[in-house]
């Protein structure tokens, strides 16, 4: 049995066997009896490294044995191994030549927190958004049919990721194509305890049927002893399955289902994978694991230890809690607002696609359970569920990360906006998110929402503005989105009262005497204000991206020689684009400086550092405005 640790080692543990593994080929040279030691050393190093770097934690601990077994039995990277979501990939990265680099994970210029094709040939597919692994692996398996026919393809997908529609689309197509594909369902439902949806209950039921496992145990022992009798025993197994779990979901789809087996029992894992490795057609191996396995506090609190904060040497182990924050996190401002609204109005319904904690909805879940819906990783469904609720006169609020709303974009257009239904979107993680990097960047929502008729979009500049604009958006009859960033704000005083703000109207942050007006959209308001002080510029907190405050913009245009727009979003299609369009429509020709993100992906690092990298901090804003003014002076020497 694997070792269980109770503390995070603050100094590097001795890992002599692990240190000899520079690539899976080294691992595959080990005798089987060495693997247990490797597992313990790998887990010890993982604890140490994530303690140093912070990052995703529980999921990786849960797949240490599985990762060792897969790289041991499959000829990676020739055989393709695709991880779903990818937050569990740290053991994979350690075994594939990135052991020493692991302490740089999620840091600027360090390893990505997810598999990334440009980082390693062993990272066969870039992930971060869940439920893509089976589709990608199927593509690779079908690609192998055209070329390298002996290549094997494996997808490792969690029980949560398996709840998303795309996973079933891919399973169904895999069965149709009869592709040689092994899907490993990494099911830690029992350790999580609160996954939602029929699928979670389904898995739990299988797990609970001890009879099934006992029968399986017997069957498998026969299997491993008598490979030649595989077909005969298999027919026995079929009847056994029907006897114990008639509704074998995956068999019904067309997969050969094997399991469930213990994903921490290396002997069982390797024996079963060896049996399955060269089976023809779509195979599904169901393994049970414990999220946080091998670290007692994480086993006890797998949700809390989903991610770990970087541990300062003297600090005790902490789950991912923020460093000293100026004020509440925006997610908690949202959560408090939602509870306050639910108290006032019975029509409030809260919806989250599997991000209850991250969206600040724990209190709402506990206080208003009958108006709370965690729909699992089903963003498309979450949006249309909101539309359906609105049809019945409810006032649904869909709490969803900006990046994950991308999954429900058609539903937003087709089901909500086109029917002008009254759904409010709390768009968290809007803007640069930081350590999660490009896969999670919330930097496209203004572009993808602005273009949708009937949508209104607010971008609050601080915590109180967030509360008031959420209230205003919720009161608005029709689809409304309020975007706010990951983490904390500038520490504004949050008023208990909620006051509807005028739709499409901005507010003046400072009146300046200089030639510049800064139009600030959203959470960079402090940077705008500081740069405005240095430049004696007028600074407007625009509050709304759609509709724009036309009068304020045209007023600024007539009284200033340079308009600056500032936003935490891609330049293309963002708020600055909206201002440019307005000026063009009004026939106003004047210098405009759009400060936003360039047409490239922003990779992982600290949010504040990445904003500064892109000139979106106060110094960067001031610098760019001064540069532009100098260029204007040079171009228009008699500029007033
Ligand atoms: C499309 C999408 N929605 C939401 C998330 C956020 N998310 C990351 S991990 C996770 C849970 C995944 O559960 P599971 O697949 O069972 O993996 P486990 O964490 O249990 O190992 C979620 C919802 C995501 N990465 N992608
Ligand atoms: C892997 C994944 O998608 C989530 O765990 C995500 O990393 C959570 O992001 P936050 O830490 O911003 O809640
Ligand atoms: Mg899981």
User: Unreliable runs, pLDDT <50, ≥5 residues?
Assistant: 207-213
Q: Based on the structure given, which CATH architecture of the largest domain is correct?
A: 3-Layer(aba) Sandwich
What is the CATH class of the largest domain? Alpha Beta
Helix content: 40-55%
Bound molecules: thiamine diphosphate, 1-deoxy-D-xylulose-5-phosphate, magnesium ion
How many domains would you count in the coordinates? 3
- The Rg value, from CA coordinates, equals 27 Å
Strand content: 5-15%
Kindly identify the CATH topology of the largest domain: Rossmann fold
Structural class: alpha/beta
Mean pLDDT: 92
The CATH homologous superfamily of the largest domain is called: Thiamin diphosphate (ThDP)-binding fold, Pyr/PP domains
Number of helices: 26
Pathway: Metabolic intermediate biosynthesis; 1-deoxy-D-xylulose 5-phosphate biosynthesis; 1-deoxy-D-xylulose 5-phosphate from D-glyceraldehyde 3-phosphate and pyruvate: step 1/1
Domain Transketolase-like pyrimidine-binding: 328-492
Binding site for Mg(2+): 159, 188
Binding site for thiamine diphosphate: 87, 128-130, 160-161, 188, 295, 379
């Amino acid at each position: 049995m694997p070792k269980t640790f109770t503390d995070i080692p603050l100094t590097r543990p001795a890992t002599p066997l692990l240190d000899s593994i520079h690539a899976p080929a080294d691992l595959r040279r080990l005798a089987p009896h060495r693997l247990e030691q490797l597992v313990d050393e790998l887990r010890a190093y993982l604890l140490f490294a994530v303690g140093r770097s912070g990052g995703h934690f529980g999921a990786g601990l849960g797949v240490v044995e599985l990762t060792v077994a897969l790289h041991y039995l499959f000829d990676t990277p020739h055989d393709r191994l695709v991880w779903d979501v990818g937050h569990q990939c740290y053991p994979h990265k350690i075994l594939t030549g990135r052991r020493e680099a692991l302490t740089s994970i999620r840091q600027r210029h360090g390893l990505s927190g997810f598999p990334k094709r440009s980082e390693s040939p062993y990272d066969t597919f870039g992930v971060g958004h869940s439920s893509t692994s089976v589709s990608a692996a199927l593509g690779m398996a079908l690609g192998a049919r055209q070329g390298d026919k002996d290549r094997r393809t494996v997808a490792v997908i969690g029980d949560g990721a398996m709840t998303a529609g795309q996973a079933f689309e891919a399973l169904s197509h895999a069965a149709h194509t009869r592709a040689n594909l092994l899907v490993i369902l990494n099911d830690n439902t029992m350790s999580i305890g609160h996954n939602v949806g029929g699928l979670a209950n389904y898995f739990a039921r299988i797990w609970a049927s001890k009879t099934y496992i006992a029968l399986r145990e017997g069957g498998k022992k026969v299997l491993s002893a008598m490979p030649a009798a595989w077909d005969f025993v298999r027919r026995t197994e079929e009847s056994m399955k029907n006897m114990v779990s008639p509704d074998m979901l995956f068999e019904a789809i067309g997969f050969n289902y094997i399991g469930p087996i213990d994903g921490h029992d290396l002997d069982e894992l390797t024996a079963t994978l060896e049996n399955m490795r060269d089976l023809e057609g779509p195979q599904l191996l169901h393994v049970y694991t414990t999220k946080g396995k091998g670290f007692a506090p994480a086993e006890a609190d797998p949700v809390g230890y989903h991610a770990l904060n970087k541990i300062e040497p003297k600090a005790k182990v902490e789950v991912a809690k923020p460093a000293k924050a100026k004020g509440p996190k925006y997610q908690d401002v949202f959560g408090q607002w939602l509870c306050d609204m639910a108290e006032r109005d019975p029509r409030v319904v809260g919806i989250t696609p599997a991000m209850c904690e991250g969206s600040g909805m724990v209190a709402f879940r506990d206080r208003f359970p009958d108006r709370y819906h965690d729909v699992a990783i089903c963003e498309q469904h979450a949006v249309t569920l909101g539309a359906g609720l609105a049809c019945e006169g409810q006032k649904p609020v869909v709490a969803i990360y900006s990046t994950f709303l991308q999954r429900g974009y058609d539903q937003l257009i087709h089901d909500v906006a086109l029917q002008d239904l009254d759904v409010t979107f709390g768009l968290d993680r809007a803007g640069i998110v930081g350590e999660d990097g490009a896969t999670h960047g919330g930097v496209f929502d203004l572009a993808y929402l602005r273009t949708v008729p009937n949508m209104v979009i607010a971008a609050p500049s601080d915590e109180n503005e967030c509360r008031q604009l959420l209230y205003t958006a919720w009161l608005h009859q029709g689809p409304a989105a309020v975007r706010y960033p990951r983490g904390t704000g500038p520490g504004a005083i949050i008023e208990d009262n909620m006051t509807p703000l005028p739709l499409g109207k901005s507010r003046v942050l400072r009146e300046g005497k200089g030639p510049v007006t800064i139009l600030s959209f959203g959470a960079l308001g402090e940077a705008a204000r500081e740069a405005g002080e240095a430049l004696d510029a007028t600074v407007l907190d625009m509050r709304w991206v759609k509709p724009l405050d036309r009068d304020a913009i045209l007023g600024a245009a007539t009284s200033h020689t340079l308009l600056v727009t500032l936003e935490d979003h891609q330049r293309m299609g963002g708020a600055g684009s909206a201002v440019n369009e307005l000026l063009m429509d009004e026939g106003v020709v004047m210098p405009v400086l759009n400060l936003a993100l360039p047409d490239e992906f922003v990779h992982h690092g600290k949010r504040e550092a990445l904003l500064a990298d892109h000139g979106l901090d106060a110094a960067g804003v001031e610098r760019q405005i001064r540069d532009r003014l100098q260029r204007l002076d040079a171009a228009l020497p008699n500029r007033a």
